[in-house]
Specification:
This protein is mainly β. It is built from 3 helices and 15 strands. The protein starts with a helix and ends in a 5-residue tail after the last strand.
């Protein structure tokens, strides 16, 4: 402050004062940048065992507070949130009726960034996940009576029984809630150039009935 006063009173040239200040200050900055000291708290080994791989989890600090993380990251990415008393926040997983088509285990409902989804409990060995279809009924399986689920993506969409692998029923076409009046079999919805038809799934039967006509805008 005294040197700043001298500059103000005209007794010192400001360039000289700045030059004197930085003489040695740059060396101190270089030493500080190379110092391994960090204000970030180091991970602490907890008594909580990782449910995915069996290792003792580490207490770490993040932008939203402390949490538990598996020490085997990135091979194991399991984490657990901690409450204000640093106790694990246990969330009860909702068990679905959907069987994982890759390993046969019953999938569980998990919460993600974009909402709820189905995940295989066999993770990380099985990484299968599925979207949860909302507010749409795809009918019941004509083989075992369990709900039908829409599976796949894009051009690979198909409709399968939620009881898989016990029931392996699957259909390329969406099922409709009516029986074939000719043979009593289940019906599916098919799109033709002139409209939507409800058709018997049996090729031998061949029954079909126009459900909705194609409309064109003038």
């Amino acid at each position: 402050e005294a040197k700043l006063d001298e500059i103000e009173e005209g007794g010192k040239v400001w360039q000289q004062v700045v030059d004197e200040f930085y003489d040695g200050f740059e060396d101190k900055i270089a030493i500080a940048l190379g110092d391994s000291f960090s204000l970030k708290a180091q991970p602490v080994v907890s008594d909580v065992v990782c449910e995915k791989c069996g290792s003792k989890m580490l207490i770490k600090s993040g932008r939203y507070g402390k949490f538990l993380a598996c020490p085997n990251y990135p091979k194991c990415k399991h984490t657990v949130a901690l409450d204000k008393d640093e106790k694990p926040i246990v969330t009860k997983e909702e068990i679905s009726e959907v069987k994982c088509e890759l390993c046969g285990k019953t999938m569980v409902v998990k919460q993600g960034k974009f909402g709820a989804f189905l995940a295989c409990p066999g993770y990380p060995k099985c990484k299968n996940i599925k979207n949860i279809e909302k507010d749409e009924n795809y009918g019941k399986c004509p083989t075992c009576g369990k709900p039908i689920k829409k599976l796949g993506k894009g051009k690979s969409v198909f409709y399968g029984c939620s009881g898989y692998p016990d029931c392996k029923f699957a259909s390329t076409y969406k099922l409709v809630d009516e029986k074939c009046p000719t043979c009593g079999g289940y019906m599916v919805e098919k799109n033709y150039k002139d409209g939507v038809y409800h058709c018997c799934a049996s090729k031998e039967c061949g029954y079909k009935n126009k459900f909705e006509s194609v409309t064109t805008q003038e």
